[in-house]
Structure formats: structure tokens, C-alpha cells
């Protein structure tokens, strides 16, 4: 009897406050709403829209090693990491800008395709065929496909790419050419500047800077 009573007490001591806390938390959320889905209070540079005419570029379309330098030059030396500032707390943290993360994924997919087509793959690339471990190339490329899928759906670019009729021999095929078009693009220059100014990320995830003067 005595042991049971103690058990009851422990249950009351633990569960009643826990239940209370959950109720208060749910009540708070019902008033405040769920936390905002995007990072708040973080400084982001203003990107103006610029009109650009897109043409086919054979350098980037080239899957041979001739095209490697142009693709690699798309990423800044620090791979697009920036020192971001939380305007409310004054804290700073390192983050990779999504545009650069997306480009890095494309560079990796391109490199994997090159290696698949090559008779003498680079060391470590064999693992693409053999291994499905968490740190394998297969895993990283799979992650990239999923990440790019979500990025494309998120930006939902509604630029209209006309469908054209192409004469092939005696017949016609319908093609969609996404190039040779005017596009409204967000200016990338301030994002490149930001990454270049940020330099290499330090070990510490949070760096507290006193002074925000440029
Ligand atoms: C910025 O700081 C505020 C106040 O501390 C915090 O509520 C907010 O979540 C922080 N934002 C990010 C992205 O860390
Ligand atoms: C293609 O890209 C390369 C490398 O960025 C550049 O030098 C070249 O001018 C571009 N060609 C066209 C036709 O835009």
C-alpha cells in the first residue's frame, strides 16, 4: 500500500506539471500561432531585378573536362558561405547561401556524370556503383537531386518558355527552348560580394562582433 502511494505521488509530481506545461504551451501557440517558417530578423542584401537575355552557352553545356573551369568559377573561393547577422540579437552565424549550395549540387552531379562516362574514374568514384553508405557519392548525389527538386519548386519560376516546332527530316518535333529568351533575374552581384567579404568560415558557429561597420 505504502509503495503504491509513493508511486502515485511520483506520478502526480511528474505528470501534473508536465500536463500543465503542455497545456500552457498549446494555449500560447493558439494565441501566437506557430513559429515563423522562415528565419526572422536576419539581414539580407536587397537584390534588384535585372533583365537578362539568355543564350545557349557551349562552355557550360560541355560535359567534358573543357567545361570544368567555367563551372568551378561559379562558386567563390569559400564555396558561398557568408557571415550572417541576426539584427535582433546582434549575433552572427555562418550560413551557405542557397544559390551557391544549388550550384555546388549541379557541379557535383556534373562531375559524377563525367566519371560514369569515363573509363578511368578518379579514386573514390567507384563507390558510386558499389556503396549506398551515408557518406557515399551515391548518397550525396541523391541528396542533391532532392534538394534541387525542392529549390525549383520553391522558386516556382513562371517565365514562359515557348514551345516551337522543329523540322527534323520529313517530320516535325515540338521542342521547348529555355534559352534565347529575356528573363527577369535577381541580381547576384551582392551575394557574390557578401561571400567574398565573409572569407573562410571560422570554427566557431557563433561569432560575436561588437561593431557592424563595413
Ligand atoms: C534572431 O534573434 C532573435 C532574438 O534572439 C530570435 O528570436 C530569432 O529566432 C533569431 N533568428 C535566427 C534566424 O536565429
Ligand atoms: C559562356 O560562358 C563563358 C564562361 O563564363 C563566357 O566567357 C562566355 O562569354 C559565355 N558565352 C556566351 C555566348 O554567353
TrEMBL record:
Q: Which GO terms describe its biological process?
A: mycotoxin biosynthetic process
What superkingdom heads the lineage? Eukaryota
Q: Which Pfam families match?
A: UstYa
> What residues form the membrane-spanning segments?
12-31
According to UniProt, this protein's pathway is: Mycotoxin biosynthesis
Q: Which GO molecular-function terms appear in the entry?
A: oxidoreductase activity
Which keywords are on file for this protein? Membrane, Oxidoreductase, Transmembrane, Transmembrane helix
The UniProt family comment states: Belongs to the ustYa family.
Protein name, UniProt field: Uncharacterized protein
State the species of origin.
Aspergillus indologenus CBS 114.80
